[in-house]
Design a protein that fits this description.
seven-stranded mixed beta barrel; 9 strands; about 30% strand
Length: about 130
Amino acid sequence: MSIASETTPKIEFISPLVGLEEHRSFELEPLDEDGLFFTMRSTSDPSLQLVVADPMPFYPDYEPMIDGDTARSLEIVDEADGAVLAVVNMAGGAEKATMNLLAPIVLNPKAHRATQAVLYGKDQPLDAPLVRKD
């Protein structure tokens, strides 16, 4: 599902992001016209923002499996209801940017609900290179 829209989606985390327990409400804002990159800004502390991206254009074979309890808690009834974003680490600059494929953010933009899912049993990197696979 695409999360790009003309309005800024507000997302409420049903469980907090690791290390950001006091922040549950965020707004997503597109950073590019293709809808690949977004800022995710805390509504309680606007100075707190993360860059997130759609991992599929970078890793087309990436298929995170989300358990039924998580899907129900996000009100995901059909696969088209959900979207997956990966947190992007830009600490080394854009040319050394990486994305966290081990713990993606799973969301239902229509229900404005999200959670960070840790993919146990999967050998996914925390720091996958951000190189588009065209």
